[in-house]
Amino acid sequence: MGGAAHRAALCPCRTHGALRHHIANGHDWAQISKSSRFMYGIDKDSYLVRLAKIHLSLLSGGHPNVSNLDTLAIQPGEAGADNDFPEGGFDVLLTNPPFGSKIISASQSTLARYDLAHKWKNSKNSSRWEKTDAVKTNVPPQILFVEQCLNLLRDGGRMGLVLPESLVSNKSHRFVVQYLMDRAHILSVIGMPDALFKTSGKGGTHTKTVLIVAQKDEKRQLGRTTIFMSEAKWCGHDSRARAIPNNDLPAIAETYAKWKNDSTIVESPLGFLLKEEDVENHILCPHYYDPKVLEEIASLSESCEIYKFGDLVENGTLSINTGDELGKLAYGTGNIPFVRTSDISNWEIKHDPKQGVSRTFFEKYKMKQDVRDLDIMMVKDGTYLIGTCAIVTPDDGDIVYQSHIYKIRVNSNKLGITPHLLLAVLSSPVVQRQIRAKQFTMDIIDSLGDRIMELQLPLPQTEDARKNLSDVVEEALRVRSESRKLINQAKELAAGSLGGSRMAVFPRNL
């Protein structure tokens, strides 16, 4: 990257990192000074630019090319006195653009120049998205940076971008992934840990990110490349800015280099391959394609019947709904449980939920929510609780449940699927691993969304095996219900003994 034939555009901190890399690899002062002439830093903050120039000058002994510019306002190829960028574009580009839907990224006239600032529509008869003439009033900067980085690169140039995972995962951004894949080869996508950019206090962000490495190719043919995928569990610092001792990135880099050198790879979450033609619905986040999930499902196919959740909904075996948000003014108005995600645990709904609502609210939502015994509640949105299940029993009485929860009902069917059987299957390791793989990021929380329809459910092959598993779960729930009644009885006896004049006598059969 430091040679005369390669010119790199980087945000100033990446320029600093590149020079430190040269120093760490033993390059002499003359080489480092020469290399710095072909590195360009760009930042909108004039103060940070001045600091970067001083720091980089001390590192390189040269005069760094750090420009105080609005990256999104730059028009590549346009002559101007405010920059001396290389003609034809950069060879390498590294950046970590600002994230945020509320950031004003560009003026309306600047937005009009970007394809990705336009509204895009999807034809029902095609998986392709088409740009319309309408321009949005505001676009998150990370979306525009994808297009601008491609514009600043020469054909064949490479770029490394740190982007929110939602940009390569969520339904609303599929046109962005299509645009990127139309103009570049995706070389690798590496998922970063959730806590990578979290810090204590007001700093940092809870946004989960991915690192994308791509090579610009305006004349490429889709479906002919292979993408290196990986998911780093550990790296960087924790939310208190303390260095994490474990670091998956060196192992990921080693696996990637080995694949590039001799085309071999031992698949694991730290490195696996995905053919471009196997990219589903323009989703590029690595955990969605977790190879361990596919291996587990394949290994179970000989001993189980595999049913897709969405197919069971379509044929009427299952029904699925979500609840409602009542608002904070409803909290504490009564004793009817308002079931939230934290109230679902260990196959049961807590009997002492944090919030209760009045009967007025219950009657308002009773018909719409239609909660019945043996309905299954599953957490839909959140962080660590997604996929947690409970089953409604007569002990639960009247309840209202929130919108972050699915209500799943087993209807009459010929497959031998009972609510108790489904509860066990949904809680099984192979289904829970699928849920972890398919959940996606929405700002500061995750969601399974309509990807629940993609879950592959392994059911015992024989009717007897299905009935036996269902009976075991039903008996376990019956025993727990009896235990709960005994616990309540013990509490009442304890309250009576402590509040009365004489010590209560506890029955021996408790």
Task: Tag the structure with descriptive keywords.
alpha/beta, Adenine-n6-DNA-methyltransferase TaqI, Chain A, domain 2, 3 domains, four-stranded antiparallel beta sheet, 13 helices, disordered N terminus
Explained architecture:
It is a single chain. This protein has 510 residues and is an alpha/beta fold. It has 3 domains: 69 residues, no CATH class; 208 residues, Vaccinia Virus protein VP39 (Rossmann fold, 3-Layer(aba) Sandwich), CATH 3.40.50.150; 177 residues, DNA methylase specificity domains (Adenine-n6-DNA-methyltransferase TaqI, Chain A, domain 2, Alpha-Beta Complex). The chain is 31% helix and 23% strand. The protein has 13 helices and 25 strands. The strands form 7 sheets. Strands 3-2-1-4-7-9-8-10-11 form a 9-stranded mixed beta sheet. The chain has a 4-stranded antiparallel beta sheet with strand order 13-22-18-20. The radius of gyration is 28 Å and the shape is elongated. It starts with 7 loop residues before the first strand and ends in an 11-residue tail after the last helix. The relative contact order is 0.07.
Structural class: alpha/beta
Binned, the helix content reads 25-40%
When the domains are counted, the total is: 3
Low-confidence parts, pLDDT < 50 over ≥5 residues?
A: 1-5
Estimated radius of gyration = 28 Å
Summarize model confidence as the mean pLDDT.
85
Strand content: 15-25%
Number of separate strands = 25
Strands side by side in the biggest sheet = 3-2-1-4-7-9-8-10-11
Shape: elongated
**What name does CATH use for the topology of the largest domain?**
Rossmann fold
The CATH class of the largest domain, by name, is Alpha Beta
Task: Output the number of helix runs.
Answer: 13
> How would a crystallographer describe the biggest sheet?
9 strands, mixed
CATH architecture assignment of the largest domain: 3-Layer(aba) Sandwich
The CATH superfamily label of the largest domain reads Vaccinia Virus protein VP39
Measured distance between first and last alpha carbons: 76 Å
